[in-house]
Amino acid sequence: MSGLFISLEGVEGCGKSTQAELLAQWLEERGHAVERAREPGGTPVGEAIRNILLDPENSAMVPRAELLLYEAARAQHVAERIRPALERGAIVVCDRFTDSTTAYQGAGRGLGREVIEELHAVAAEGLKPDLTVLIDLPVAEGLARAARVKARDRIEHEAAAFHERVRQAFLEGAAREPARVKIVDGFAPLEQVRDAIRAQVGPFLASRELLSNTDGMTPPA
Ligand code: T5A
């Protein structure tokens, strides 16, 4: 596959959707074909599963059913949109991917990493992001930001301790794979977060010889 797969990750309200849009626009302005994507969702089947997953009415959902629904939405997304876009040579900018499942279902729900990684291999056909930007933010700030924009969904109703486990799992994932997962401070003003993301993505694309105008950026060590 000739494209590139970039995911944005982090706790609720950390600014992923905002930054995914800014990043996609920036890449398009530089002449790249960009596929915007988000999980759960991104396809008609995936959006229907998203509605089930996020509906607060579904409070009886057990963790394993939740896990399988996230992976089912992902299987459809990878087959219908992500893999074809990568085969066309596009840059896929995805708001959440497998790291979210590892953090939320693995650590948040306590299902553990092993079973989840086996499911990733099935649902995502072994596909991993080339680069992941983790926008790190204290849980309370993220939940407060999210609450200002929309009503709380089923996952946002979880206790603070659940979201703390999720944040720690994201940070542990970044420590395990420092070459792929880059941490950006989400507490900074929006424009600073945007620039910090560009400072990771620009050199990464340059290292893959995909960005002709690197604005003087040098590839990361
Ligand atoms: N989930 C997902 C799992 O449990 N397992 C999985 O495998 C997957 C894929 C998805 C839910 O599903 C869970 C995680 C989630 O709980 P969602 O609605 O897509 O649900 O939830 P989020 O991805 O968390 O989306 P949010 O919209 O809540 O958060 P974002 O996208 O991180 O934040 P954003 O960009 O919408 O910004 C929120 C607000 O903050 C402001 C924005 O303007 C906006 O008002 N903001 C800032 N304010 C100050 N400073 C900054 N730097 C700011 N950046 C943004």
Please provide a written account of the structure.
With 221 residues, the chain is α/β, with parallel strands linked by helices. The protein has one domain (4-214): P-loop containing nucleotide triphosphate hydrolases (Rossmann fold). Helices cover 54% and strands 12% of the residues. It contains 8 helices and 5 strands. It has helices at 16-29, 44-54, 63-88, 98-108, 113-123, 139-149, 160-176, 190-207; strands at residues 4-9, 34-38, 91-95, 131-136, 181-185. The protein has a 5-stranded parallel sheet with strand order 2-3-1-4-5, sandwiched between helices. The longest helix is centred in the middle third of the chain and has 26 residues, at 63-88. It binds P1-(5'-adenosyl)P5-(5'-thymidyl)pentaphosphate (T5A). P1-(5'-adenosyl)P5-(5'-thymidyl)pentaphosphate binds next to helix 1, helix 4, helix 6 and helix 8.
Label the overall shape. Answer: globular
| Largest sheet, strands/sense/barrel | 5 strands, parallel
- Specify the CATH homologous superfamily: P-loop containing nucleotide triphosphate hydrolases
Q: What structural class results from the helix and strand content?
A: alpha/beta
**So how many helices?**
8
**Elements, N to C (H/E):** EHEHHEHHEHHEH
C-alpha Rg (nearest Å): 17 Å
CATH class (first level) name: Alpha Beta
* Ligands, deduplicated: P1-(5'-adenosyl)P5-(5'-thymidyl)pentaphosphate
Return residue spans where pLDDT drops below 50 for at least 5 consecutive residues.
Answer: 212-221
Rounded to the nearest angstrom, the distance between the terminal CA atoms is 25 Å
Mean pLDDT: 93
